[in-house]
Amino acid sequence: MTRGSRPAAVLAAILALATPSARAAALAPNVILVLADDLGPGEVNCYGGQTAPTPNLDRMAKEGIRFTRYYSASPICSASRCGLLTGQFPARWQITSYLQTRAGNRACEQADFLDPKAPALPRALKAAGYATAHVGKWHLGGGRDVVDPPKFAAYGYDQGLGTWESPEPHPEITARDWIWSAADPVKRWDRTRWMVDRTLDFLDAHPERPCFVNLWLDDTHTPWVPSADDQKLGKNGRASGRGDTPDRLRRVVIEMDRQIGRLLDLIRAKPSARPTIVLFLADNGPLPTFEGARTVGLRGSKLSLYEGGVRLPLIAWGPGIVAEGSTDESSVIGAVDLFPTLCRICGADLPADYRSDGEDRSVALLGRPSPRKRSLFWEYGRNDRSFAYPSGADRSPNLAVLDGDWKLLVNADGSQTALYQVGRDPKETQDLAHKEPVVSRRLREAVLAWRRSLP
């Protein structure tokens, strides 16, 4: 058997089966979606990063597929998670920034939580026979003065173990009314280990069913607190870091990589007839960038629609089902694609009347590079009072569209149009708006029309 032939055969079998029940009974894989927080390509060696050694993520890429053109749905956490979970651009559900206090949400023209009527990937997979769990950061409703968000079950989860910004914060990681505190039984530097353990517990508890787990880390978000010596106590026992230094980030990344390695090692060691797919990705770009080191030179950061804010690592791993040992530099995959893609792979029907803003990218995700058909659109920043922005040249216009290799940015009022050919110029150094007026006009009209269609 030649290298890669088994994944190709499994892929063909999965995509050929017609009914969700047949796939769930025979081939439906476990799926673990590992979402790192504020992680840039500079945190992963196989993406050219030099922040810290990442041998386990590098091995994951060697045993699977490393994608270089994956895009989040937003350059900020809540909105990017909304796009991933619903398969729709987050502004459709009135989430355009991070969810915060009710007053802050009103100032951002956004809801207080993700509407439970929104399509939800776990709900679709549960209908196909999956056991479903959320472990870790949620940030789609809950915390601060939002005291009545829908519970995890409203979105289709059988189990929800959330952090503070969730409807059901777990007491082992939220002893106080804050994101983390010195009183938490599980300390800040040990949270990724705890989340990996809870994920493995869920898999062990449901051996007879395929499982879907959102393992959403709060590493590598600041503050970086890799040890007790790096912790600072504040008001009411709240804890924070003593300073967000490159060395503290390095130690946080080392521990995160170690825990991802432990997750994969235990999956490798457990004999099972059911394959497991693990996806490792990030919610948005990093901040601070340490002069572009964390974005490997891509322009922008978190809070920016330049590539550094939305173009992120994606590694797909799944022995026996995902092709092994390749880098896909051509397939453009968006976070909004994961809903239809995973439904196809897992044998789940899309919800009735569902209209995804993404597309089924299962062929690419499992090992066969392919072009995408739909454009990707972004919005970030509706006013200068309630939205945070990076400084200087990293601040982008507030709308963007990606169509093939062309990416256009413009403000909602039509100002600051810029056009880049990001396939050739990923660092967005050469504005081609005047040299390519036909392309510029077409994409500008498209993104402005899209913005007018939003709530």
- What is the name of the CATH superfamily of the largest domain? Alkaline Phosphatase, subunit A
CATH class of the largest domain: Alpha Beta
Radius of gyration: 21 Å
SSE class: alpha/beta
Total domain units: 2
Shape: globular
Q: What CATH architecture label of the largest domain applies?
A: 3-Layer(aba) Sandwich
**What is the CATH T-level topology of the largest domain?**
Alkaline Phosphatase, subunit A
Count, helices: 12
Share of residues in helices = 25-40%
Q: Largest beta sheet, briefly?
A: 9 strands, mixed
Number of strands: 15
Q: Give the terminus-to-terminus CA distance.
A: 53 Å
Structure notes:
The chain is globular. The chain has 2 domains: about 375 residues, Alkaline Phosphatase, subunit A; about 55 residues, Arylsulfatase, C-terminal domain. The protein has 12 helices and 15 strands. It is of the alpha/beta class. Helix 3 packs across helix 8 and helix 7 packs parallel to helix 8. Helix content is about 25%, strand content about 15%. The protein starts with a helix and ends with a helix. Strands 1, 2, 3, 4, 5, 8, 9, 10 and 11 form a 9-stranded mixed β-sheet that branches. It has a 4-stranded antiparallel β-sheet with strand order 12-13-14-15, with helices on one face.
